[in-house]
Design brief:
Layout (H helix, E strand, L loop, with lengths): L22 H34 L4 E8 L25 E8 L12 E8 L27 E9 L9 H5 L17 E6 L2 E9 L6 H19 L7
Length: 237
């Protein structure tokens, strides 16, 4: 079968045998791949630097955990990578960084304890219709139609948590995102109450985070709005 000659990532969408492609097309596709990997490395470095800066705006917190949005993390050394999806090797495509106050309950929350989630969604066009089937990016909405977003969320325990339950696996890990429960208010803040939690979320297009000053200003706005809504006093950086 002849390959479909389309520039960019779709060069790899082949009719018939998925391993069949002529050498010229494959060589051209690999040029795209090399460009993409170098661009991706720069983008992910910028994301990590941004996450570091955001963490500095919450000086009372420390790193707790992180999680790729809808996937498991990169397979560890003793697992066979061939058993995983290609998406498992792109964990920063959609990921959350979790921070908790140093002087609170740590991984075991109590009433009044809170957790910060910083979420990067590189591509809102992501679509997982069936968790048994690897998502096909050729079927996503166009990259021009999709967006890239940064979300800052704070989850606060407002009721007793059963003994032994921790943030990652039981409390935050079983919670909804505010955006899935409620709509934005006039300030763009989304607030929900669910189970033992109250939570607030503020989103911003990633394209607006063009400088340190822009990131700091977004964090300051989020902290001000969330502090008022959840009755939390955040430390100044």
């Amino acid at each position: 079968m002849e390959p479909v000659r389309i520039s960019g990532p779709q060069r790899f969408q082949i009719r018939g045998d998925p391993m069949s492609i002529d050498e010229q097309s494959f060589a051209a596709a690999l040029v795209d791949v090399r460009h993409a990997y170098r661009l991706l490395a720069d983008y992910q470095r910028r994301c990590l630097d941004m996450l570091t800066l955001i963490g500095q705006q919450f000086p009372e917190t420390e790193f707790y955990n992180w999680k790729p949005g809808d996937l498991t993390a990169v397979p560890i050394a003793r697992t066979d990578p061939r058993d995983y999806w290609g998406w498992n090797f792109l964990p920063l495509y959609r990921s959350s960084l979790l921070l908790v106050p140093r002087d609170a309950g740590g991984s075991l929350p109590g009433i009044g304890d809170w957790l910060v989630e910083v979420r990067i969604v590189t591509d809102t066009g992501w679509e997982m219709q069936d968790r048994r089937i690897e998502p096909d990016p050729s079927r996503f909405v166009s990259v021009e139609t999709a967006d890239s977003t940064l979300s800052l969320m704070v989850f606060k325990c407002v009721d007793e948590v059963p003994e032994g339950q921790n943030w990652f696996h039981h409390v935050w890990g079983n919670a909804s995102w505010p955006e899935d429960i409620e709509d934005q208010d006039e300030d763009g803040l989304i607030t929900m109450e669910e189970g033992v939690l109250a939570a607030s979320q503020l989103d911003v297009p990633l394209a607006q985070m063009t400088s340190k000053e822009a990131v700091i200003a977004f964090c300051a706005r989020a902290k001000r709005l969330i502090s008022r809504k959840l009755e939390i006093t955040f430390a100044e950086p």
